[in-house]
Amino acid sequence: MNVPSELRYTREHEWVRIEDDGTTATIGITDFAQRELGDIVFVELEPEGTALGKNDVFGTVEAVKTVSELYMPLSGTIIALNEDLEARPELVNEDPYGGGWMIRVQLKAPSEVDTLLSADEYAEMVG
Which domain holds residue 24? Predict the structure, then answer.
């Protein structure tokens, strides 16, 4: 299982990459999550400009077996969507930390990052 050390994680299996400026973040689901879901066939995300609180639902992922909600790891406003997922949702399976990213967010409270799991903590959780 791949758990990049530079990312932060949630107990709901989202990952967060804080960008250089510290006020924006890229968010997706973990390698563990995409394996558990199986073949992803559809990704639905809230539109750009949507402001959401921590733990609010920002979209859903539909796999062959199930539909799973996606939860905001941090409060903020969606500033970009990965439009490639519309035509190629399987990117989440193929490259969850790269081409399979889901949203970019302008953070409302950057200090919330401190509430997220480190790579070691996440790896221990999913064991």
Answer: 8-109
CATH number of residue 48's parent domain: 2.40.50.100
**Which residue, among 57, 55, 61, has the nearest Cα to 74 in the 3D structure?**
55
> In terms of Cα–Cα distance, which of 64, 71, 68, 62 is closest to 105?
71
Cα–Cα distance for residue pair 87/108, rounded to 1 Å: 30
Beta carbons within 8 Å of 63's beta carbon, 6+ residues apart: 37, 38, 39, 40, 41
CA separation for the pair 37, 79 (Å, rounded): 26
| 4-23 confidence digits (pLDDT tens) | 999 999 999 999 999 978 99
